[in-house]
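In practice, a research group might receive sequence data for several interacting partners and want a quick structural hypothesis before committing to experiments. The following worked case mirrors that situation: the sequences arrive first, and a predicted assembly follows.
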Amino acid sequence: MKVVTFGEVMMRLSPPLNYRLPQAASLEITYGGGDANVAAALAWMGVPAAHVTAFPQHELGHAAAAHLRRFGVDTRHCLFTDRGRLGLYFLEVGASLRPSRIVYDRADSAFANLDPAAFDWDEILKDATWLHWTGITPAISAAAAQATADAIAAARRLGLTVSADVNYRRNLWQYGQRAQDVMPPLVAGCDLVVCTEGDADDLFGIRAEPGTENGFVRMSEQLAARFPQIKRVIATHRRTQSASHERICGLLWQEGQFYETPFYDIAPVVDRIGGGDSFISGFIFGAATYGSPQEALGFATIASALKHTVHGDINLVTPAEVEHLMQGNLTGRLVR
Amino acid sequence: MKVVTFGEVMMRLSPPLNYRLPQAASLEITYGGGDANVAAALAWMGVPAAHVTAFPQHELGHAAAAHLRRFGVDTRHCLFTDRGRLGLYFLEVGASLRPSRIVYDRADSAFANLDPAAFDWDEILKDATWLHWTGITPAISAAAAQATADAIAAARRLGLTVSADVNYRRNLWQYGQRAQDVMPPLVAGCDLVVCTEGDADDLFGIRAEPGTENGFVRMSEQLAARFPQIKRVIATHRRTQSASHERICGLLWQEGQFYETPFYDIAPVVDRIGGGDSFISGFIFGAATYGSPQEALGFATIASALKHTVHGDINLVTPAEVEHLMQGNLTGRLVR
Amino acid sequence: MKVVTFGEVMMRLSPPLNYRLPQAASLEITYGGGDANVAAALAWMGVPAAHVTAFPQHELGHAAAAHLRRFGVDTRHCLFTDRGRLGLYFLEVGASLRPSRIVYDRADSAFANLDPAAFDWDEILKDATWLHWTGITPAISAAAAQATADAIAAARRLGLTVSADVNYRRNLWQYGQRAQDVMPPLVAGCDLVVCTEGDADDLFGIRAEPGTENGFVRMSEQLAARFPQIKRVIATHRRTQSASHERICGLLWQEGQFYETPFYDIAPVVDRIGGGDSFISGFIFGAATYGSPQEALGFATIASALKHTVHGDINLVTPAEVEHLMQGNLTGRLVR
Amino acid sequence: MKVVTFGEVMMRLSPPLNYRLPQAASLEITYGGGDANVAAALAWMGVPAAHVTAFPQHELGHAAAAHLRRFGVDTRHCLFTDRGRLGLYFLEVGASLRPSRIVYDRADSAFANLDPAAFDWDEILKDATWLHWTGITPAISAAAAQATADAIAAARRLGLTVSADVNYRRNLWQYGQRAQDVMPPLVAGCDLVVCTEGDADDLFGIRAEPGTENGFVRMSEQLAARFPQIKRVIATHRRTQSASHERICGLLWQEGQFYETPFYDIAPVVDRIGGGDSFISGFIFGAATYGSPQEALGFATIASALKHTVHGDINLVTPAEVEHLMQGNLTGRLVR
Amino acid sequence: MKVVTFGEVMMRLSPPLNYRLPQAASLEITYGGGDANVAAALAWMGVPAAHVTAFPQHELGHAAAAHLRRFGVDTRHCLFTDRGRLGLYFLEVGASLRPSRIVYDRADSAFANLDPAAFDWDEILKDATWLHWTGITPAISAAAAQATADAIAAARRLGLTVSADVNYRRNLWQYGQRAQDVMPPLVAGCDLVVCTEGDADDLFGIRAEPGTENGFVRMSEQLAARFPQIKRVIATHRRTQSASHERICGLLWQEGQFYETPFYDIAPVVDRIGGGDSFISGFIFGAATYGSPQEALGFATIASALKHTVHGDINLVTPAEVEHLMQGNLTGRLVR
Amino acid sequence: MKVVTFGEVMMRLSPPLNYRLPQAASLEITYGGGDANVAAALAWMGVPAAHVTAFPQHELGHAAAAHLRRFGVDTRHCLFTDRGRLGLYFLEVGASLRPSRIVYDRADSAFANLDPAAFDWDEILKDATWLHWTGITPAISAAAAQATADAIAAARRLGLTVSADVNYRRNLWQYGQRAQDVMPPLVAGCDLVVCTEGDADDLFGIRAEPGTENGFVRMSEQLAARFPQIKRVIATHRRTQSASHERICGLLWQEGQFYETPFYDIAPVVDRIGGGDSFISGFIFGAATYGSPQEALGFATIASALKHTVHGDINLVTPAEVEHLMQGNLTGRLVR
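A structural hypothesis for the assembly, expressed as C-alpha cells:
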C-alpha cells in the first residue's frame, strides 16, 4: 500500500496556550493542510505516503517540507517555485464558550499559482495504490482544480483507489467558478468520500436530515446513485459541548450497509484542527488492516478522537495506541 | 461617550501554567486594577476611555502605563511621582479543588501616597460622560479616599454618570478609617452600583438573603431608598464548581424592575481575575448600545463569562464576539 | 518526629503541556522517586525528613540531590559513586482519553549498583522515628533489596515505626528473584502498609474483591493475620474518568476498625505522578497530628487529591492548605 | 513639538536566539516600519508623536496598532480597511560571519492598497510641527507614493519641518515607476534628509567617494544645490566587523558646516534592525533639545548605537540614558 | 570548616536575554544577596555553610529559602516573620555599551524589620569556624546593624575568623546613621576585609591612588594600622570594556606581603551580579585549601572570572573546575 | 551522487542559553552523531544521503529518526530493535573562559548492541557513490566495529569512495580491544581521511609537529605511505581563543600537493558541536562541485565556520550561503 495526497500546505501560527493574538509575544509554528495531514498521519502509522504540493523556493517552503518529512512523508514530488508565497493561517485557540478563531492569510500562494503541467502524475502515482484529495484543493484556483482533475484521471487510469473529503468551504471559492460545477466531475472519480449531510446539500443539492443516522444513510444512497463509482461514504457527527469539550461518533455507509460507533467524549480538547483529516487517515488504515467495516470505522473514529488530544494538525498516534483504546481502555490510565 | 476610571494599577506576577511560586523559574507579567480593567475593556471595545492613577517614576511605572495604552487607554492624566513603589501581587493559578492564591505586595505604593491636590478633576473630566470607581480605591489610603471624593464631586458637578463597584475587601482597610464611614457618602454620588448582598450587609447594614434573586431585589430596593441617586444595581451570582469550573448569571435591578440571565458554564476557567470588572464594563457598553435592559445585562454577563477564558486582568473581547454568543452560539465552534 | 526514606531518585523529562515526545523541542526536568517524594512532601510540610539513596558522582546526581534539598530534604546520607548512571524516565502527559505514557531508562543506575555495606543504618537512623520504603526499591537489584532489609532491621532494632507502600510492578523485577519471595520478610517488619487488593493478591496470594470496601477490609484482616506487626493498612480507590479527570477516596483499616472518605473529583488533573506517594506522606503527617484516624485519613486523601493539581512528583502543599479543604472549602475559590 | 510619521507597519517574526527558520518551533513577534520606528522612539523619549498608516481590519492589524500605542504613539489617524493583508517579514538573526536574513512577505498589504483620498492631511497635521517619511513608503505602490506627496504638500502648506530617510531599496520598486522619477519631487519638499553616498548616486546621480567624510560633504553640497529646501544632511558610516560586531559614526552637514562623531563599537549586536531609524529619531530629538549641532549629532549617534543593544525595531531608550553615555560613560558599568 | 553568613536575601526579577523591562512579558527569577551568595558558593564547593536572615512568612520567603537550600546552604537559622516583605530587585541585563540597570524595591523588608534579639548567635555559631558579612547589611536598618554587631561580637568570643566585604553603597544608608560612624567598629572585629581604594576613602578617609597596585598596598597598610585585627586585605581591579566584556585581576595584601594575578578577560559576560561575592568565597575556599597565598588568590580570581559566565547571583562552579583553569586551561576548550 | 553514513545517533539534552545543569528547569533537545551529522548536512545541501544506524523501538528512537528525516536524510535502512536504549549526552554550553562540558550517558545503546548481520550492505549501498564513517563507531562495541568493517568491504566491492574521520577518543574504547589494532585495517580501506597530527600519533604512531602546516604535510605523506588507498587527507587547525571565540583554518593534502585556507574568526560561537562533521560534509560537497582542490577546501572550511553559528549538531546552511562568504562577504551584513 502506498498513499499519495495532493493539496496546499500552510504554516500555522498560534499564540501559546489560550492567549489572544493582540497579547501574544510569540507564536508557535506548525504546518498542515487537509490532504497533507492525511499523508503524515498514515506515514506515522507506518504506511508509505507521499504528498504533492507546490512550495515557495525559500526558507519557509523548505521548512514546511521538512516538517512533513519529519513524520515520514515522502516530499520528493513537491515543487519549489518562485511563483508565490507560503500560505499562512493564524489560529487563536479558544476555551470553554470562547471559540477558536482562524485568520487566513493564504492568498497568492505558490500552490494557488501552480502550473498543472508541472506534475507528471503517471510518474508520481506509479507505485501508489491510493490517491486522496480534499474539496479545499479545487477551491483555491483554477490551476489547482485542473491539477486535481489530472491527478484523479491518472489515478483511475492506473487503477488506484481514490478518496476525497468533499469539505465545502464557501469562503474559499473565489476564483470565478462555482463549487457546484467544479466538484461533481471530480467526485465522480472517487471510490470513497467523506461527506456530511450539509456538504451534500450545498454541493450536490442532496437533501437529508442533517445530524441523524437516517439522514446520513439517505444521503449516502443518493450520493452513490448519482456517482456510481462511490462504494463507501463516511462522516463523523459532532455534539460539540464547548471549545474544550467535544463528542464525536463515526458513520459508514458501505455498499448498502450502515455502521456507526458510540459517541466518544474528548475533554479537554487539546487541538481540534485536523480532527476530520485524522478520521479519514484512520479509515484508510483501518480498512486496509481489519476484516470488518465496523472495526475500520471504530479505528477511524478513535484515531480522530485521539487527534483532539494531540498538538498540531497531524495525528501523531500509532496503530497500537488506537488499538489499546479499541480494546476498551478509554479512561486514559497511565501506561508505563 | 467617554469613560474615566480612577484607581491603583498593580503589576501581577504569576508562575506559568499551574506552577506554584516556590517551584517557578519565571513569572509572567501583566498589569491590572479593578478600575483600570474597566477602562481597558471599554477601550478595546472601541469606547474612548482614560484611566487616572499615580505611578512611580521609573521603568516599572512606565511599563504599567504602556500596558494600559496598548489596549487603547488614554494615560495622559496619570501622574508619575517618586513618592512610592509600584504595587505588586503574586498570583498562583489553582486548578480543580486547589484554589488560586494571591500574595499582595502593594504597601507604600505611589498610588497610596498620592497627593489629592495633584488631580485637576474639572480638567480631567471635561470631555467625559461617565466616571467609574471601585471600593478598593478609598480603602488604600486617606489620600486615595479624598481623591475619590473629589472625582465624584467633580463628576456630579459636570453632569457625568457615576458608577461604582462597591467591592468590600476587609483586609485592605488599614489606614485608620472604617469602610462603613467612608463608603456611604461616596456611594451616595452614584447612579449605578455593583453590589452583592454580602457587601450591602457589611458596608451598609442592609440585610437580604444572599445568593437569591429575592435577596438581590430586596437589597437593591433598600440601597435605592438609602441612596436616592442610585437608579440601577447590578451583580453576578456565582455557583463556583471548582477553580477550573465556574457558573455565573447576571442580575439587574433598574428603577423597580428586576432582570436576570441564565447561568453560563465556564469550563475550563483560563483566568478568573477581572471577571467582575468585565461585567461592569460590559454593562456600561451594553446600556449605551442596546435599547433594552435585558440585552444590556445579557451583554454584560456574556462579556464576563468570556473574560474567564482570556489571560490577564483585562477583557480582550470585541462587541462582535460577545454578540456572536448572544445569538446563541454558546458551544465554542471554530470560527474561520 | 523525623522520617527517613530509602530508594532510587530519577530525573523525569517531559515535553511541555501535552506535546508528544517526537514533536518536542524541549523537555521539562524534575526529579522524583516513590520514597523520596514522601520525604520531600513531609519536609515541605515542616517535618524533618531525610532521604537515603545513591547518586552518580557528576552534574546530574548533584542536580537531583539539589532538587530534594530545595524542598527541605536532608541529603547528607546520600552516596555519590561512580558505579552507574542516573536513572531517567520520559513522561508524555496525556489528556482526555489519551493516556500518559512513561518510557523508563533506568537500567544500570548508581542506585541499582549500590553497595549495601556503604550505608551505616544505625548512624543514619539514630535520630529518626519513622522509616518508609516502597516495593519498588527491592525490585531494582539484589543489592537494593539487601539494603532495604538492612534498613528495616536497624529500624526495628532502634524502635522506629516502619511503613511501606508495597507497590508491585511486575516489569521491574528482573534481577532473578521473585517479588513473592523477597517481599514477605520485608513486609513482616512493617507497622503500616499501603496495599491494594490487587497487590495483596499478586504478592501474598491474598484474595479479596478488588475495588470494594468489603474487599479492602477482608484483605487488611488477612494481611494483619499473616504479618502481625502490621497495625494499619491504607489505600486509595480510584474511579478514573479520563487522563484529565480522576476521582479518589481513601481507605484505612486500623486494628480492626474501618474508615473511608467520600470520593473527591479532580478535573482537570495537572500531574498524576506521585499521587500515591502524597497519600502516604499525608497519612504519616495526619496520624502524627490529629487524634482521630478519620481525620488522619481525610488529611491524607485531600493531600493526595491536591497533589493531582501540582506539577512534578512532589506534593508542594502545606498543612494549612489541606486543612482549608478539610473544612469544606472544596470549590477552589480564590484565596487572597 | 509634535511629530507625525507615515508609512507601512509590518509584523516581524523571528526564531528565538540565533535559530534558523527551518528549525524553529516558535517565532517571536514584534512590529515595525522605518517611519513608525521613528514615531515610537520619539514617543518613548517623551515627544508627542503620531503615526499614520493603513491596517487590515482584523486581529493582526489591531495587534500592530496596539504595539505602537504601547510605546506612546498616537494611532488615532490609522485607517483600518479590508483592502489587504498585514505585511510580514521573517527575520533570521545571524551571528559572527553568518548574516541575518530577511524573507519579506509584504505584497498586497492594506498599506499598499490604501486610498490616498482617505487621509485628511490638513486635519492630521494640524497640531504637528514635524513630518517624517522614508523612501520605502513611495516604493510600495503608486497610491502610497501619492499619499506621501499629499502629506508633504500639506506639511509645507502648514509650515512643518519635513524630513526624510531616502533609504533606496532597489527590490522594493515594483509597481511600474522608477525611484529616480518619483523621489526627486518628494525630496524637494524636505528640510532634512538622511542620505548615504550610495543612495545619492543611485537616486540622484550624485557621485561622491562613498564612505569618506569628504565624499559625504561633497554629496551634501550637491544635494543642497539640487534641492534648495534641504538645510541639513545626516548619515551614519558603518564599519561592520561581523553580524555580531558593528562600528558606527555619525555625520552631519548643516548649511555648509560639517560635523562628525568618533566611531562607537557595538559588540555584541543584540538587534540591528531599526538602527538607522533610531539615528534620525535621535537627531530630531537632539536638534530640538541641544543648542549645538555637534551635540545633536552625538545624541543621534549614541541613540543609534544603543538601539543595536535593544530587541525589536523600536529604540526603547530614554534621553537620560543617552546622555549618560554622552558624558563619557561608555563602558557599560552597572547602574544601580 | 563551617562558614556562617548574615544578610538580606532578595528575589531578583529579570527580563529574559537583553530585553528591557517595559517590553518584557515574563521575568526570570533567582534569589541572592551579597552574604548569602558567599554561603551558597561555598556550599556548592562542598564547604558546610549556613546563612542567617529574616524572611516573610509566606510563599516568597519559603521560595527564597528553598533556593539557598538547593545549593546546599543550611537554612535552619533563618527566621520567618510577619514583620515585612521580601525585598525585590528588578535587573535589566545590558549589552555592549548599554549598562545593566537595577531597580531596587527592597524597602520595609522582613530583614530590615528584624528583631536583633531573635538571633541566638552563640547557638548559631557554635560549630562554625568563619563568619562573613558585607557592608550592605548594616546599611539596611539600625536593627540589621545591631544584629551584625552582635554576630561579630559572638564570633570573636567563640574564636571564629571574621571577614567582611565593606562594599559601601551610598544610596542604601537611609535610616539616619552614617556609614562612617557605623562601619569602623564593625570592621575592627574583622580578620580579613574586601576593600577597594574607593571604599577606604569613603568610609575611613584613607586616601590612596585608586586602581593601582601601589594604591592598594598603601591602603591596606593604613587599614591594618587602623584596625589591628585585620591581617589580610583583598580586592579585584576591573578594567571594564563594556557591559559584555570585563577584565579582572585579584590583589592580596597579607601581613605586609603583596600578591596579584594577571588580568583575566571575560567576553561575553553572562551575568555580572555576584562577581565580587564569588571572589571572597573563592578566597575563603582557597585560603583553607592551598598552602600559598598566591594560589589562594589565583583560585579566588579565577572563581570570580568564572562567575561572570554563570547565570544568577550564585557561583555554581566546583573546585575542580577552577583548578582546571588554574592549570592554564584558559581557552575554554570543550570538556568531554 | 549519493552518500551513506553509518554510526550512532544520540539525543542531546542542553540547558537553555548558558545555564548549568543543576540550575536548569528544562533541557533543549536535538539529535546528532558524527556520521549522521555529515549525512544531514549533505541532505540539506541537496545531496541524496542516507544514514544507517540502530535505534530502540520506542518513542525516543522514532523521534531521533524523525529528526534526521526532517533535514532530508533517508532513514529507510535504520534498524529499530529492543536490544538497548537511545544513547544520550547532556551538554552544558560554556562561555568565555568557562568550557562547554559533556556528560555522556550512552552505554548499552541499541547501536552498541547491534547485530552486524542485520545490515545487508550490498543492498544498502547499491545506489550509493560514497560511504563515510568516523572513528567513534568502531570504538563503541565489537559489533559496531564488525559492522563498520562489513560496510567498508562492501563499499570497496561496489566501487564507492570511502572516507573516514579517524577521530580518536581514548575514553570511548572500553570493550576490550585497542584502537591501535582495530583502526588500521579500517583506515586501509579509505580514499580520504580527516586526521589531525595528534590522532595520527595516537593511532598509528606517526609523529609530526602538531599544529603546523609542515607537520600536517609530513603526517599526510606518512599516512599515504602506510595506507596506499588514501589519496587525500584533510584537517582543520584551531586557534581557540575562548569557548565563545574560535579561529579555524582548513588544510588539505592531495596526492602530494598541500593546500590551506586563511584563518576564519568566529565570535561569538553559537554552537561548537559538529564543527568537524561540517568540515567533512563541506569537503565532500565541495570536491564534487568545484574543479579545484583549493575551492573544495575553501568551501569546507567556510561551511565549518558557519556551523559554529548554527544551533544543533547539524550544519543547516545551503551551498549558496557558503558561496556568498567565499565571494568575500565575511562581515555578516544583513541579507534582505
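Before designing any experiment, note the following. The two ends of chain F are 32 Å apart (CA to CA). Chain F has one domain: 3-326.
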